[in-house]
Structure formats: C-alpha cells, structure tokens
Amino acid sequence: MYLQSQASERMKRRASIPALSILLLFAASCHWHVAPPDDQVELTRLEIKTPEYVPLLIEPADNLTTVEGAALGRKLYYDPDLSSGGPLEGKACASCHLQEFGFTLPGIKSPPVLPHVNLGWNQAFLWNGAKQGTLEDAMRFEVEDFFQVDLDRINANDYYRKAFKKIFGVDEINYPVLAKALAQFLRTVNSFNSDMDAFLQGKGFLDESVLRGYEIFNSERGDCFHCHSIGLFTDAQFHNNGLDSVFSGFGEGLYAVTGNKNDLGKFKTPTLRNVALRGPYMHDGRFATLEEAVEFYNSGVLPSPTLDPIMTKPGKESGLHLSEQDKADLVNFMKALTDTVFIHDTALSNPW
Amino acid sequence: MKAISLRIYRVLVLIPLLALVLSGSCHRVPELKAGIQINISHEVDAQPLRMDSIAYQNEAGNPYSVTRLEYYLSDFTFIRPDGSSERVELTHYCNPRKAESLHFDLEVTEGNYSALEFVLGIPAERNLSYTLPATSENINMSWPENMGGGYHFMKLEGHFIDNQQKEKGFAMHLGMNRWLVHIRLDHNMDFKGNQNPVGLSMNINEWFRNPHTYDFNIQGNYTMGIDSLMGKLSENGADVFTITSQ
Q: Quick one: which H or E segment has residue A140?
C-alpha cells in the first residue's frame, strides 16, 4: 500500500494509543493463536516487535511466524544432519553463522560470510543479489541447492516428522516446509539492542566520540546514511561504492545476475549492525579492519560509470577528507552498533 | 385583539418553523462522491522516461540519465470555478521503478472543477521523523534528525557528462519544510461516478529549466543540505507536472 494515510493519521494514532493499549492487552491475554489445519494442534502466533525506526516486518500470509515454527527452524539451523550426504557434510547453518560474531564467521575473504541478522526485511540475498524473493525462497535455495538436504534422512527422523506434521500439517517433509521453518526462525534473529538503539529510543547516552561519529555518519560530512539507513543500517539496495574502476569476476556484482551494464560493480549494502564483530570488509574482504574501510571512504574512492551518484559530490569525488579524529569517531560509532544482548540471547542459541 | 395563550402561541410559531426545517432537510440533495484515479507518468520533454540511459539533455545542455527518482505527493485540493475547494489529505510515495506506486485513488464531491493543487513533499505538520508508515521506502527516505528530521521530498539521481566529457553522478535531493514544492494546475475537470482517471505527467527537464537554468557543472551536482540549490529546485518544481488526461 502506497497511499500513506489520510493526514494527521499520526496524531490520530497517538490519540488512540490508550484504546490500542487496551486492545493489545486483550489480545495478549487472549493468546492470539494461529488456526491450524484440521488435524493439527493450535499454534501460538509469535509477534515480532521492532522499534519505530525500523520498517514493518512483512511476513507471508502462508508462513506467519509461530512459537512452534520458529523453534523447529532453530533446531534445523543448528543441526549438522541437514548436510548429511551433501557437499557440506557435517555442517549446519550455524557452522558458518556463529551467534557470538553476530551470526557470521569472521576471517573469510572470498567472499566474506554475510551475517544472518534482520533477514526478514530482505528481498535480495547474497552479496550480488543472486537469490531474490522472500526469505522462504532464499531458504529453499539453502536446503535444496546449497546443503542438498537428504530428505529421506530428515523424514526418517522421528522428531522432525512429528514436528512438521504438527506445525505444517505435512506427512512428508519436503524442501518447501524445511525452508518455511528456517525462515520462521530467521525472522526472530533480530538485533535492535545496541547502545545506538538505546540512544535512538531515548533510553541511553552515547559517549562524545560515538555521538560525533553519529553526526558524521548521519550528515553530509560522512553521508553514510543514504545507503546504511538508520534502523536496519542498510537500505537493502545495490550500489557501486567506488572500490574499483574496472570490474571482473565476482567484482562485477549485480551485473552477473542482471546482465545490465548499469549494474556493474554494484553490491547489496551490508548491514552495519554488529559490524565490529566481523571482518574482513567489502564483498572481497579487501579491508581487514574498520579503520581501513573508513580510510577507503575517506581517500580511496575510484570513479567509474556506475559509481553511485551520491559519492560524487563536488570536492569529495575521491573521498570524504575527514580528519583523523573524524575517522576514529566513525569507527567508534560503528562499534556502538554491537548488540551484546543479541549475541548472548539464549532464545537464539544452539537448542541441542 | 383576541388573547392567545402562551401554549397556543408556541404552537403557532413552532409548527411553521419545524415545517421549514423539515422541508429543508427532506429536500437537500445528497452530495455524491466521485472516484478519481490518479495515474502518474514521467517524461523528458515528451520522451517517456527510460531509466539508466544518458539519452536526455537539460536546458543547460548537460547530457544526463536518471538512475533514481523517488518522491512524495501530498494533499490534493480540487478547486471549483466559484473558488470553493475540496481538499484530500494524503501523502503518496512515487517511484517509476515501482509501477504500483504510480496509481492511487481519491474521492471528491461530484461536479466541475477548474484547478488542482497539490504539493511535492510532505506538509510541515506531518514532515516529522517516523510519522509515515514504517515501510522500507519511507524509512529510506528519512531526512537525518541532525539535519532537521522528517523526510526527503525527492531523490532525483543520475549521471551526466561534464565539461571535461567525463561521466559523473548528480544527486538532486530536496527536503526541509521551506522547500516544499507547491503545484497548481489549471484544468477543467468534470467528475461523476466512480471512474474519473486523472493523468499527471512529470517532465524531468522542468526541474532544470524555469525560472532557474540548472547546470550541473555550474550550480553543482549535489543539493542536499545546500539551501541555495534546494531553493532553485523547489522553485523550478512548480511546473514539473501537467495534467495529461481527464
């Protein structure tokens, strides 16, 4: 829906907060349940709460997140049995997406492992957008093509067979329902409890350097906000940020997917949430540290026909020309996006 | 003179009054609403807009392409020949890369109208951070709090060939309450029933033409936060739209 609201809807919304609160209280006390197919038990709807500066989470009507579905997806996520007999024998999703690092694996260069965080908002996956669609579509690719899950083995597992019957109403587990369960879990893998979140919600303070970094990030001095939008800290779009002037191999980016020369060198903006926990940085891991990444934006931007227009402002064609203090402040700002609640959340940890 | 009791007096006065009121209400013609379908298109001096192609030239002679165009239209006011008007409050996000964003519906009272007014952007009372529904589009259109908050009114980006024959980017970003773009289109419109399509076409070149000739090489290829440039864009924006059908 693009028709935003009849004007002053916001004010009306504010006025109706007490009424809404009462309704919510009723809804909470009534345990909103998801109606199951005839032979299934009732499932408990899992409402995913997000701050106001984050886009609404859109869930597909045929795979609304439930407590039971997310729990099943969590078991799958941590289960190396998913890869038995396949090319990734012995691996689980969690083998390369470690919670302590924000659900990624530091140190990998080609390409760096993208973090599994706030994926519910994505409609394009992988660095170059090679997988597009819903989270369910992406997970379908993971189980069918990447892990090549042995369905016979999964169906032979009594726990899984009963759980999928109960939650998804299927007698036989297939790739689509495996993808649905994983997608439900991943919609709960959300990070909104960093120091920056506390600040944005008026519940916390930032130290001086972080605050200066926030102002550089969020103004024309740094101009980071256009791509790393406050909230998810990604606009989930594709940009050429000036790493190269000539493109080949994986460096071609989105072009490899679309065949459109206007997409040469464009990669999906990675989220900056928990960015200090991972590295190296950029699609080819060329920068080992956040300091190096910031220095690139400061002095190393290269021209090319597809360079993002916002990176060509007068006098800053090759970089931002920030001071040493500015750069240190930007790094400190990014470190304030580390969410220690998230990386220790037992609701997301290995359930086995 | 015969004496009239207060009770009879009241009856004699009230009955005609009541009859007058009732007759008025019984004969009032209900105002019927007309359904209006707003359809937005984009052109460059009569050529349909084709994204990502340096196929256009602005008034200053800069060859250019459009790679991004996102903006809001708000508060449509339909003006009758007698000067009375009907206002529909809304804010609508438009993006030629998202076809579904180029159509929306309104309702106004049936009848004849002689002009349409609206704004490109978001009126000040609603241009506050996080007041629009939290869609990805709206969040990505946020104008940073430390630059005044609210939303970008428009992002118009692309590439151009500069004076040295090099390809460079441009980003015409518009925001902040004082640069709201006020648009008035004089046009005879008759609305009746549910099907009343109104076509609005944005001519991209008008952003660079009147009253200010905008040259990317001279004025600059980046406007955000630069009042003098956003002011020029805002003034040029008054005639970027035309009504193409009704």
A: helix A135-141
| Contact with chain B for residue A307, Cβ under 8 A | yes
Residue A58 or residue A79, greater confidence: A79
pLDDT in tens, B91-143: 999 999 999 999 999 999 999 999 999 999 999 999 999 999 999 999 999 99
Report the 10 Å Cβ neighbour count for A330: 28
Minimal Cβ distance to A5: which of B128, B130, B133: B133
Specify the CATH number of the domain A37-190.
1.10.760.10
A279: left (phi over 0), alpha (psi -120 to 50) or beta: left
Per the structure block, which two tokens stand in for A253?
């980016």
Look over chain B and give the mean of its residue pLDDT values, rounded to a whole number.
91
Quick one: pLDDT at residue A313?
84
Which residues belong to CATH 1.10.760.10 in chain A?
A: 37-190, 195-336
Can you tell me the distance from the alpha carbon of B189 to that of B80, in angstroms, rounded to the nearest whole number?
9
Distance CA A30, CA A215 (A): 44
d(CA B142, CA A219): 12
Contact check, Cβ <8 Å, A313/B171: yes
- Asked if the C-beta of B42 comes within 8 angstroms of chain A's C-beta atoms, the answer is no
Topology annotation, domain A195-336: Cytochrome Bc1 Complex; Chain D, domain 2 (1.10.760)
Q: What's the rounded Cα separation, in Å, for the pair A120 and A336?
A: 23
Q: Does A236 touch chain B (CB under 8 A)?
A: yes
ipTM for the whole predicted complex goes beyond 0.85: no
Q: How far is Cα A81 from Cα A92, in angstroms, rounded to an integer? A: 7
Q: Which H helix or E strand runs over B37? A: strand B33-44
Choose the closest CB to A55 out of B139, B145, B168. B139
